[in-house]
Amino acid sequence: MAAGDASPIAARALPSGSEGRLSAAASWLLIAPLLALFVLIFVVPVMGMLGQSAFDPEFTTRHFEQAFSRPLYVRIILRTLRISAVVAVGTLVLGYPVAYLMARAKGWQAALIGACVLIPLWTSVLVRSYAWTVLLARNGLVNNGFAGLGLTDAPLRLLYTEGAVILAMIHVLLPFMVLPLYGVLRTIPADLTQAALGLGASGFGVFRRITLPLSMPGVTSGLVMVFILAIGFYVTPALVGGAQNMMVAQLIASEIAEAPTWGFGAALSTILLVATLGLMAVFNRTISFERLAGSRA
Amino acid sequence: MNINVPATAGARVRVENLVKRFGPVTAVAGASLEVASGEFLALLGPSGCGKTTILMSIAGFEHPDGGDIRLDDRSVLALPASRRNIGMVFQRYALFPHMTVAANIGFPLLMRRLPKAEIRRQVGEVLDVVRLGGLGERLPAQLSGGQQQRVAFARAVVHRPPLLLMDEPLAALDKKLREEMQVELKGLQRLLGITVVFVTHDQQEALGMADRVAVMNAGRVEQVGLPRELYEEPASAFVANFVGESNRFHGPLVERTGRIGALAMGGGPALRGLVAGEATGAVGSPATLIVRPEMISLLTGPTADAQLEGVVTDLTYAGSTWSVLVAVAGGLSVVARVGTERLGGPALALGDRVGIAWNPEDARIYPADAG
């Protein structure tokens, strides 16, 4: 009854000794298999790739020069960054309300929203991308629908456009935005919202002053995750964008598969890797905010 | 400390026949309360008695299924929480973790669109009142529990609401700090002249801080009264049991002469006490007799005055008194609190046979309670 309320505090004060912890040697031993696998199939190939981009067989910057001097390649790199940025912002705009609703819903409603977000995630990217080609084709559902409603005289060119690539990628990547946002939104205590309301804030005021700033860690991690996944996207742009809307991953594939120019392919991969790491570094700095916001007495 | 704050006129609060159900559970079953302007009322009761639901209903975070809530004679049920102009201190303070102390405290002023300079001035003033001057630029996580508590209080009163609600605001603090904050909050409340409704399950806190205490049980208000009245004239066996220490005996009412009744316990002697209230049933109905430990006399020699007899099983020294545990027939134990000088040195030892006696006027008989 009454005394029970004090227990969470007592539980937190439990002494944290070294009991139940593994020795350093045992920990390393347990990590060793994963570490070995990681080095073998990740670190070694990446190093090899970095090496190939700059040694052919002597040290050379030829491949990088090629990537940045040919207008076609520069255009593809810029297009990749542009599409990825638009997709990241697009998933944020579409995903935030979903995550917000999901965090507030209870019982079967929460389960339903969760299923709507997760089931596409479990469906093959290939299947979902093909679905868009069916929808957007000259005689696809959308064009037939428009024609049937008398909105268009001739079929619109929908497939093989940058818009189609962005649309399909937003669809494919939406769960990667919704899930981190949901994770953060769910941890915002309800009493903060109540406190803000009680102090005179409107519903929008609560969102602007409390919910949105406290969900910024989710916003940044969602943006980073979607952007990084997007700049390496291959299947979706290949299917719905075609050769005119090529992204860097397609270029790498064609350089290596069609005309085996490993050095140039490796240089392009290195550019992607550096762009990704650079972005991570920038966002890591903003994440320190998360630590402040997360520590609540 | 130089404090220059004009006292607010505290709001009068009326809770009328409030009902609130959560699915099949009735959290509040027709509770009524009245709080005078500037009064400090504590809602006291065990977990789940509905006290927090009443508080949340007044604040506007719960929507009652029946009854009315009036502030200064105006019903507030139609108003959303943001329009009720009530201050609230949450159990875990609910400070905005991403805002500085000053921004937290200034929040209600910002929401009321006061000019920035004015907000800064008022926040500075209230920071001095709660003795946090100079900490305005800290984040809540950088403050101690007691300091966070003060920020929560300052934020709840900076816009001078006529009513302040507090939901177990001291529960998260350790005992010493809690006692200090009790004194401090009480002082601040007097200074501001604000009406306070304070929820707690800690009877010492309620009796110590409040002008009046409402004891709640199972969604109903059992008794509202001065702390002294609750202790000395509890209206029900529940109140007697919940407020202060007590010995309880259950059995049928076997006899009644005037206001004095007798209760039979097992095959033992009849226990006498004052029959409380008119509602108490007729002879033969189940009843509960309650007697405070300090009302009991322990008799060492053979005497006819004793209502019960037993063996001393425990003696606890508590400074001015001894707490004596006496095992009596039927597997029951009786706690008596006797002055140390009355014991007269070695008069009592573990294993002694003693008589237990009390003046019937000092014990109370209630209709049997379920507990």
Q: Give the class-level CATH name of chain A.
A: Mainly Alpha
Strand-residue proportion of chain A:
under 5%
Class by SSE composition of chain A: mainly alpha
Taken in chain order, the helices and strands of chain A follow as HHHHHHHHHHHHHH
Can you write the helix and strand succession of chain B as a string? EEEHEEEHHHEHEHEEHHEEEEEEEEHEE
CATH-defined architecture of the largest domain in chain B: 3-Layer(aba) Sandwich
How helical, in percent, are the residues of chain A? over 70%
CATH third-tier fold name of the largest domain in chain B: Rossmann fold
Under CATH at level 1, the class of the largest domain in chain B stands as: Alpha Beta
Q: Give the tally of structural domains of chain B.
A: 2
**CA-CA gap between termini of chain A:** 24 Å
Structural class of chain B: alpha+beta
Quickly give the CATH architecture of chain A. Answer: Orthogonal Bundle
**Helicity of chain B, as a percent range:** 10-25%
What is the strand arrangement across the widest sheet of chain B? 6-7-8-3-9-10
Number of helices of chain A: 14
How would you describe the shape of chain B?
A: elongated
Find the count of extended strands of chain B (DSSP E, 2+ residues).
Answer: 20
